[in-house]
Amino acid sequence: MILKGNQRAGGQKLATHLLRADENEHVELHEIRGFMTDDLHSAFQETHAISKGTRAKQYLFSLSLNPPPNEQVPIEVFEAAVEHIEQKLGLDDQPRAIVFHEKEGRRHAHAVWSRINTNEMKAINLPHYKLKLRDVAKEMYLEHGWKMPRGFVDSKERNPLNFSREEWQQSRRNDQDPRALKQMFQECWAISDSRKAYAQALQSHGFELARGDRRGYVAVDYRGEIYAIARYTGIRTKQVKERLGDPKELPSIEEAKAQIGSQMSKKLREHLDKAKKERKQRSVKLAFERKQLVEHQQAERRDFKKSQEMRWDAESRIRSERLAKGLRGVWHRITGQHYRVKRQNECEALMSFQRDRKEKDTLIFQHIAQRQNLQKQTHEPQKTHGLDEIRQLRLEISRYSAMKTGKPLDLKKEFEKAAKELRDKPKHTHTRKPDRGPEPEI
User: Fold this and answer.
1) Which residue, 34, 131, 135, is CA-closest to 84?
2) Of 107, 192, 278, 315, which cross-links 198 as Cys (Cβ 3.0–4.6 Å)?
3) Rounded CA gap, 26 and 108, in Å?
């Protein structure tokens, strides 16, 4: 189970994020303990108010618990992990909240503690909490027999294709799979032994090697996006310089953009826009199917919860009726019958609680399997197909970049013309925002 935690403030924003049903398919406030209220916003507001009596700014500790993909992890495992982490970090008996999220066929949990020790009126120090979380995560992988990430076994073998948030956003702007994009840069580096070979390898994928303003060596794609070579290859800047030589011998970013722009054709841009439009249409279909499935699952869970509550109330009445009242009740207490019936009721109540929780987990696992099936049948194929087509268009653009052209295209006029044609089209009748045309590429 991957554990990520951090000390933080901003309790109201955190509560809003944890309860957002628009970003998650199912949200459940599983537990709220040690606060004066059962409302998450009010609970974090309470902690914030108490922290005003201390010098602490980051009055909360937030933790996310992400189990391995395709593993059916019951609620008890999440609860045991939270308890273990609580003791490991010294947050025993501190007010806490646990929230479960389900999204795209996966369930994960968030736990949030108050760091304020009200007896001493100071924040609990959490030294080396990242290392402690890593140790707990390793223990859980070994305990449950889950396949451990290679980065846990040896930090040198951590996935080199992990993306930072900035890299992910850049790849999203460029309609690229971030892992495939980074892998492409690394494969080009692996098969080249000189600047010329690396430049040719990048050109085969539609990128031009250039001199960056501050980052030394960069690659520029056909849309003008800039990629730092050292970052995307995972190679040290010193090693990059040894292979690619003096960056002053490379064209500047503006020169690379001008070269790419002059070699692009309107037809390829039309094909690319068409591919994006078709991919969006497939996304609309996926969103519709996902919405129907989520609504069905939410209704099923409401009915299931109601039926469990009705059964629990009926069983509670039966247990209550076993306890005699009046003079008979006094006699049962004297003879010990009352104690025996009470113990029987407690055992049956515990068994009923465990049964209800197991049934709830079973239903949730069924829903997760349904969501994973939809993800596999609809989302992944359309994602792969759309990206493959866009990648193929990049290869076509690289071929045009290798050709000697005559008069460069006036890209500004081309874009203005394409944008005008799109503005003149009739507006869409559905609720989605109309396509505003291609974004400026350079």
Assistant:
1) 135
2) 192
3) 11
